[in-house]
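Protein modeling request. Please complete all fields; requests missing the sequence field cannot be processed.
Requester role: graduate student
Desired output: 3D structure, token encoding
Chains: 1
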Amino acid sequence: MSDVKNRKKVLILLGSPRKNGNSAALAERIAAGAESAGAEVESLFILGMDIKPCRACWSCQNPDAPGCVIKDDMQAVFPKLAEADAWVIATPVHWFNMSAQTKLWMDRCFALPRYGKNPFRKKIGVAISYGDTDAVASGAVNAIRCFQDSFKYVGADIAGMVYGSALEAGDIRRNEELMAAAEALGRQLAL
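Delivered output (191 residues):
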């Protein structure tokens, strides 16, 4: 009974418009690694949710604010983010940075401190796919830097990143070394 009680919760945020795209394939392998190490894993497909952009109203920053004033699907996501022990953010590179879906979710995390004490103090895994031949030419380096800077600012621990090149949906699965690294990252997030 105590094993079930002590299971780590890993929340995966799929930021691609393709449910079966390359970043989703990386996230799937991370999930397999986390589950093999005993974690409970839940995945959220951002594009399939009603998530509106942040209005920059700053209402959520009022010490008495109960949370974000925007009534959309983020109201259900905020508690999941706060309760999870680890997050995985999976995104393709679109126009030299993370996808619009991922950035939309990330901007709304501005209100997250209203949903729990130290809600960013958790392990973070990042999975990025890009269509060019390397991380610099594709712009993946911009997404990597954005995640590094953002999570450093809020005190989150980036446990690891996996990223690689693939253009057609599912092509990344052929990169066995990268897929093995994704699975290892999942196991690390479950510890």
